[in-house]
Write a structure and sequence with these properties.
By secondary structure, this protein is an alpha+beta fold. The protein is built from three helices and three strands. The protein has a three-stranded antiparallel sheet. The longest helix is centred in the C-terminal third of the chain and has 12 residues. It is globular. The model has no long low-confidence stretch (mean pLDDT about 80).
Length: about 80
């Protein structure tokens, strides 16, 4: 997993790309406080972020990291 910082709020998450469509994101406990979208969706940071998958700004930052090579797509395939 590689750190990716959101260009909008500075929140840092750990990401891993398994394919162009599959991204694993590990959130920090501070996400509801530092991310405006999370804060808005949890009622000011007091609710749970467990069911929030991502925010648009972070998604853009992850896509940018893939485009500039900071975050590589592993594209690991296993044969059964």
């Amino acid at each position: 997993m590689r750190p990716v910082e959101c260009a909008a709020c500075g929140n840092q998450v750990l990401c891993e790309k398994f394919s162009p469509a599959h991204t694993s994101v590990q959130w920090t406990a501070e996400a509801a406080v530092s991310c405006a979208e999370f804060r808005d969706r949890t009622g000011g940071g007091g609710g749970t972020t467990a069911r929030i998958r991502t925010c648009r700004a972070l998604r853009s930052s992850i896509d940018r990291a893939v485009a500039d090579g900071t975050l590589e797509v592993d594209d690991v395939r296993t044969d059964a």
